[in-house]
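User: For a benchmark we're assembling, each entry needs the component sequences followed by a predicted structure for the full assembly. Here are entry 17's components. Please fill in the structure.
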Amino acid sequence: QVQLVESGGGMVQPGRSLRLSCATSGFSFSGHGMAWVRKAPGKGLEWAAIIWYDGSLKYYIDSVKGRFTISRDNSNNTVNLQMNNLRPEDTAVYYCARGAVGANYFDYWGQGALVTVSS
Amino acid sequence: DIVMTQSPDSLAVSLGERATITCKSSQSLFYNSNNKNYLAWYQQRPGQPPKLLIYWASTRESGVPDRFSGSGSGTDFTLTISSLQAEDVAVYFCQQYYTTPITFGQGTRLEI
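Assistant: Structure for entry 17:
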């Protein structure tokens, strides 16, 4: 069955870096776009970044542009989110999500990784 | 950016009764070339990741009970639960995937 498992979350000071990884299995990874969606405490869902199935296109929400980088390894079925210069407002549960074929709605989600940015 | 606005913010419905949540987008989500509305609905139970319920505004995801239905076109959409069950207590989100940035509604909390 389809599985997405995030790792790499934790507590970090403002200005520092963290790298999230999402290990996937149970589907043809190279056929799907992948995204990171976050949920801050007491707030709604916020899409952060997306990468096309072949890595050719990447998009980010404005608030993370220049600080976050999404990447994928189609040989190891993983997608990553490198987060630099973290801010307190980046504190959230970060979900890895699989894009549907040919459309950017998300049909499978991981359990999430908590990132806390605090001094 | 396309702004997604849900109403109400919270809703209490009796077991077996109908629940209706609306979602309005700041611009049309209808794409003329394929006659599709780029709108999805998700359910998020406490402590769980979101779960896809509906895509293309009205197509039910495999395994989703048929009491869940989606309707609407253009800028106005509705999620209906025809007969509320206890396990439907959750927060519901709409999402547009017409363009980036992908955006979600603020969520509607559904209670018994």
